[in-house]
Amino acid sequence: MTQALTIAKFGGTSVATYEAMQKCARIVLANEATRIVVVSASAGVTNHLVSLAHTPMTQQQTLEVCQAVEDIENAILTQLTHPETVKAKLDDLLAEMRDLALHEEVVHRDDLKDQLLSMGERMSSLLFSAVVGEQHEHVINFDVRKVLRTDSEFGEATPQIEKIEELAGSLLRPEIEHSMVITQGFVGADEQGRTTTLGRGGSDFTAALLAEALRAQVCEIWTDVTGVYTTDPRIAPNAHPLPELSFEEAAEMATFGAKVLHPATMEPALRQDIKVFVGSSKEPEKGGTWIMRNCEHEPSYRAITRRKEQVMVTVKTPQMMYAQGFLQQVFGIIAKHRLSVDLVTTSEISVSFTLDNPANSVAQRLNKETIAELETICDVKVESGFDLVTVVGNHMQSAKGVSSKIFAAVADYNLRMICFGANPHNMSFLVNESDSTEIVQGLHKSLFE
Ligand code: ADP
Ligand code: ASP
Ligand code: MG
Predict the structure, then answer these.
(1) What is the pLDDT of residues 365-415, one digit of tens each?
(2) Closest ligand relative to 289 C-alpha
(3) What's the CA gap between 215 and 448, in Å, rounded?
(4) 184 Cβ below 6 A of ligand 2
(5) Annotation: CATH topology of 6-224
(6) Statement: 302-448 belongs to CATH 3.40.190.290
(7) Which of 216, 370, 418, 422 is at 20 to 30 A from 134, Cα to Cα?
(8) Positions in the chain short of pLDDT 50
(9) Ion ligand 3: residues, Cβ under 5 Å
(10) Ligand 2 centroid to 198 CA: how many Å?
């Protein structure tokens, strides 16, 4: 018989300090069903590692950044009741980090970059297992690379679902019979055993993937907000937490920029019907958001999201009017580079579309390569400085008056592109980045306050 299984994931701020980790340990131990815990790197660490991996630095600068990471880790270590149990292991990991950071090739080799980026989770999971170990007898720090098999697309690797299921079944399942398993988010390994990563914010995805592989009933995402809100509370202070969300709504929100969930998190949950809970590790008593297949209500407007750093690409060919297959060629190039297009508009002789372009991301690099390749077949104009604002809801195309209320709220702004999603759950605008905060605030006021 399968026992009830919950997988709990704690984000960077939740495991930023010893005290924060103690709160997480209490949450974990309060629920008997929780047998696997996925942790992010302590807050700030991955950003330091990204700068080491991407920015050429002098040796002196490199060592300073390494020191900043070391300080974060050691601050936790020294507060442990028994620091000696993990000190040697932590020192080894810190030494590995320094060696990688000082490696001449690191800024040029994607495999080394990922190995360096994985250090944050490998250290936080070690320290967190010691914190849980202060209150619980059987705790292990499990190397997720044994089960989280991915392809070799370093920086944004794609998980191999069947392989993960097989490996988790044989290597992870036996561990949870007698131990509390603490493991790393964000990190994976390819077939050759080389370390890969899932993209920024990927620990949520790891938790959902492990929940899928082990057929858990619940996946908990513990973070620094008391659930998924009507919009990012940092943009609109009047945003409020949502008690429930459907898988589709949550997937749209994550895809269109709600940072609280990694964009791919809902895929495994949807496949295996796993309920996802989002709550605050600082205030677990406040409850949070339940994401599930069927919600009690299907409101027209559920939330507003914003995704920053978008580029608009316009491709134009004088032959387009006559050239059949031009669109196919354009989208063939985009597909080849594994980029996803969000908004598209076409005219007789041109096509415009938007691409995600966050700094230092795999997408940014691919955008550049994609554009160069497009230039071989047509004129290409690239404009940046845009944000994508999306209203997420239900029946958006079919319910009367839904869009007019949205349009009224954005009437005073220059909208570069407007698009209903290919499903009934979203409506998006490409706007100037300097307007997007006001637009989100205005929409929030009109739709939710
Ligand atoms: P973690 O480190 O726990 O993964 P993140 O920083 O990745 O946390 O995600 C939590 C943050 O997501 C919040 O602090 C909040 O600013 C942001 N956020 C964006 N959109 C939303 C939303 N709709 N609801 C809640 N938080 C959101
Ligand atoms: N530590 C990684 C990041 O900062 C993964 C995560 O936090 O989910 O992106
Ligand atoms: Mg996150």
Answers:
(1) 878 889 999 999 889 999 999 999 999 999 988 888 888 999 999 999 999
(2) 1
(3) 36
(4) no
(5) Carbamate kinase (3.40.1160)
(6) no
(7) 216
(8) 1
(9) 11, 201
(10) 9
